[in-house]
Amino acid sequence: xxxxxxxxxxxxxxxxxxxxxxxxxxxxxxxxxxxxxxxxxxxxxxxxxxxxxxxxxxxxxxxxxxxxxxxxxxxxxxxxxxxxxxxxxxxxxxxxxxxxxxxxxxxxxxxxxxxxxxxxxxxxxxxxxxxxxxxxxx
Length: 138
What we know:
This protein is mainly alpha-helical. The protein has a single domain (21-137), classed as Globin-like (Orthogonal Bundle), CATH 1.10.490.10. Helices cover 67% and strands 6% of the residues. It contains six helices and two strands. The protein has a two-stranded antiparallel sheet with strand order 1-2. Helix 4 (78-91) crosses helix 6 (118-133) and helix 5 (96-113) packs antiparallel against helix 6 (118-133). The longest helix is centred in the middle third of the chain and has 23 residues, at 50-72. The chain is globular and about 40 Å long. The model has no long low-confidence stretch (mean pLDDT 94).
């Protein structure tokens, strides 16, 4: 049995999300967020393997972006989804500070690349704060 992390499986992330009636392509946004994430945490590429680390980063980030947009549109609860993801990642010994940073990077990219994304970015920043202030995630 290998100690390496397996590539993403299970529920595939969406390709798009609809914000204010406009489809948002999640793939390119997630790629940009992944680039910034691995600039910040290059050791994750060694820890998980380059291909697997990048695949998981893009997979999870596409979900996160879709949840944040759906939250603003009244179709999801970002905090509930992020709490679920944080519990899952904590059980896998993933550093939750990395998740919080990823949420902040996603907020930055959303502000830069999605029209009228201020509320989405704000929700992502609130989710990062939730991770950092929840005692069970420390």
